[in-house]
Amino acid sequence: MYGFEALSFNIHGGYLEAIVRGHRSGLLTTADYNNLCQCETLDDIKMHLSATEYGPYLQNEPSPLHTTTIVEKCTLKLVDDYKHMLCQATEPLSTFLEYITYGHMIDNVVLIVTGTLHERDVQELLEKCHPLGMFDSIATLAVAQNMRELYRLVLVDTPLAPYFSECITSEDLDDMNIEIMRNTLYKAYLEDFYRFCQKLGGATAEIMSDLLAFEADRRAVNITINSIGTELTRDDRRKLYSNFGLFYPYGHEELAVCEDIDQVRAVMEKYPPYQSIFAKLSYGESQMLDKAFYEEEVKRHCLAFEQQFHYAVFFAYMRLREQEIRNLMWISECVAQNQKSRVHDSVVFIF
Amino acid sequence: MEEDRRKDDEDNKLALQFMDSLHNYLSLTHSLSSTLRQGWLELASAKHSMGTSRVNTSVLDLKSHSASTTLKITENDDGTQPQFTLQKWVSSEHESTKLEDKNEHPQDSDTKSSATEATLTKNLTGLADNDEVRKERDKSLSVFGVLISPKLRATQLSFEKALETLIDIANMRSSVLNSFTQLHKEVEDTKE
C-alpha cells in the first residue's frame, strides 16, 4: 500500500538503493563539463576523465583515441553498474531492472535485421550492438526472411516475444516494414512496462508513470516530426503512438494530421508541461528540440531521487548515465572536429 | 604598332583570366572546407539525436545497386580543358530523364564567378522542390531507417553541396591550368 514502503522496502531493496544513490553521486558535475569543454584533443578528454569513475575504463586505451572508443568504454561502466545491481536484486526489482534493457534489445534486433538485409557481416553487426541489449540467440536473427520467421526461430524465447503479436506478418522484411516493426515493438514494450509499474503500486507506480508518460509523449512527437514528408500514412503514424501519456488520446489525433513543425508546436502548446519546451525554440526550428526534450527528461529523472523507497531511482540512474555518455560523445566529436564553439549546442548538464 | 597593342591587350586578357580563375578556385576551396565542417558536425548531431546504433557504417548497403550520382568528363577538341559534369539523383528507374546536369557548358571569365554562384543556388533550390529528387534522397537515406531525424536530412544536403563544390573546383582547376598554359605560351613567344 502506498505510504508504507518505509516499513519493508529496505529488507530487499535497501542495499541496492544505497548503491544506486552512490552511483548517482559519481555523475559528472558542471565543473567536470567545463573542464572537458576546454580540452584541445581527445587525449586531454581522457586525462580529465581519468579522475572520474570512467578512469579505469579508459586508462589502457592507446593513442590516438577515437570518439567511438570513448563512448564504448564509458558504456562498459554503465553495463558493469547494471550487472552488479541485477545480480544482487530479488523479485520484483530484478524484473524491473530487466525491463530497463528491453529498449536496447529492440534496437539490437533491428540493427541485426537491417544489417543482414544490407548484406553486412553478422560479426560486424554484433560488435555494434548495445551490450545491455544482448541475448543468447541474437546472431540467429540473420537467417530470418520475414517477421514470422524472426519470431518463430529466435524471438519466441526472448522477453520480446509478447510484443510481436501486433506485427507478425509473412511480408518480406524491407526498410519500411523494419521501421514499423521497431516502433510497434517499442510501443508494446512501453505499454507493458507501464502496466508492470502500475501493478507494483506505491511510489514506484506514481513516479514511473510520470517518467514513462513523458517517454511516450516524446516518442509521439519524434515519430510525427520524422514522418513528415515520408510515405508513412496518417493511420500508420497514429498506430505507432503509445496508448498512454498526456497526449493520449486527443493529442494523438491532432499529431497524426500534422504536416510541419509549427503544427506540432501548436498541438504541444495546449499542454502546460510541454509549453516550456517549445518556448525555448523559435518558429519553424526543430534543431534544438532534442536538447529541450533531454533537458526536461534530466530534470524529471533528478527529481526521482528526491523520494525514497521506490524503484524509479534505478530507471532514473540508467537514463542519467546514458545522457552523460551522450554528452561525452558530443564533446568528443566537437573536440575531434575542432568545433568547440558548438559544444553547448547539445550538452545537457545534469547537476 | 596596332598589332603590338592588340597583342598586349590579349596578353592582359589572358593574365586577368588566369588570376580570376585562381581567385575563384581559392574561394571554392574555402567554401568546400566550411561546407564539409558543417556536414561532419551535422552528422555528429544526427548520431547524437538518433543514437549510435542507427547511424553507423555497419548499416550501409553492400548490395549491388546503381549509383545515384555520376560524373561525366568531356574534353574539348584539343584535349586541353576537360569539363566535369555531375548528374545527380539518376537512379536506374529514371535514367532517361536526368534530373540535374551541373556545369555542362564552359563560361566566359567575366561572368564565371557570378554565374557559378547563380547555378549553385538555382540547382539547390530547384532540386529541393522536385518530388522525384526528394524520393531519390529518401531512398539514399533509407539505409538508416524510414523515420529519420531532420538533422540527418540536413547532413545529406550539406554533403550534396560539398560534392557540387568539388566539381566546381575541378572545373575551375581545369580553367586555371588552361589559362596558365596559354599565358606561359604567350610569354615564351614574347621572349623569342
UniProtKB/TrEMBL annotation, chain A:
<dbReference type="InterPro" id="IPR002843">
    <property type="entry name" value="ATPase_V0-cplx_csu/dsu"/>
</dbReference>
<dbReference type="GO" id="GO:0033179">
    <property type="term" value="C:proton-transporting V-type ATPase, V0 domain"/>
</dbReference>
<dbReference type="InterPro" id="IPR016727">
    <property type="entry name" value="ATPase_V0-cplx_dsu"/>
</dbReference>
<protein>
    <recommendedName>
        <fullName>V-type proton ATPase subunit</fullName>
    </recommendedName>
</protein>
<comment type="subunit">
    <text>V-ATPase is a heteromultimeric enzyme composed of a peripheral catalytic V1 complex (components A to H) attached to an integral membrane V0 proton pore complex (components: a, c, c'', d and e).</text>
</comment>
<keyword id="KW-0406">Ion transport</keyword>
<comment type="subunit">
    <text>V-ATPase is a heteromultimeric enzyme made up of two complexes: the ATP-hydrolytic V1 complex and the proton translocation V0 complex.</text>
</comment>
<dbReference type="Pfam" id="PF01992">
    <property type="entry name" value="vATP-synt_AC39"/>
</dbReference>
<comment type="similarity">
    <text>Belongs to the V-ATPase V0D/AC39 subunit family.</text>
</comment>
<dbReference type="InterPro" id="IPR044911">
    <property type="entry name" value="V-type_ATPase_csu/dsu_dom_3"/>
</dbReference>
<dbReference type="InterPro" id="IPR035067">
    <property type="entry name" value="V-type_ATPase_csu/dsu"/>
</dbReference>
<comment type="function">
    <text>Subunit of the integral membrane V0 complex of vacuolar ATPase. Vacuolar ATPase is responsible for acidifying a variety of intracellular compartments in eukaryotic cells, thus providing most of the energy required for transport processes in the vacuolar system.</text>
</comment>
<comment type="function">
    <text>Subunit of the V0 complex of vacuolar(H+)-ATPase (V-ATPase), a multisubunit enzyme composed of a peripheral complex (V1) that hydrolyzes ATP and a membrane integral complex (V0) that translocates protons. V-ATPase is responsible for acidifying and maintaining the pH of intracellular compartments and in some cell types, is targeted to the plasma membrane, where it is responsible for acidifying the extracellular environment.</text>
</comment>
<keyword id="KW-0375">Hydrogen ion transport</keyword>
<keyword id="KW-0813">Transport</keyword>
<dbReference type="InterPro" id="IPR036079">
    <property type="entry name" value="ATPase_csu/dsu_sf"/>
</dbReference>
<dbReference type="GO" id="GO:0005774">
    <property type="term" value="C:vacuolar membrane"/>
</dbReference>
<dbReference type="GO" id="GO:0046961">
    <property type="term" value="F:proton-transporting ATPase activity, rotational mechanism"/>
</dbReference>
UniProtKB/TrEMBL annotation, chain B:
<protein>
    <submittedName>
        <fullName>Uncharacterized protein</fullName>
    </submittedName>
</protein>
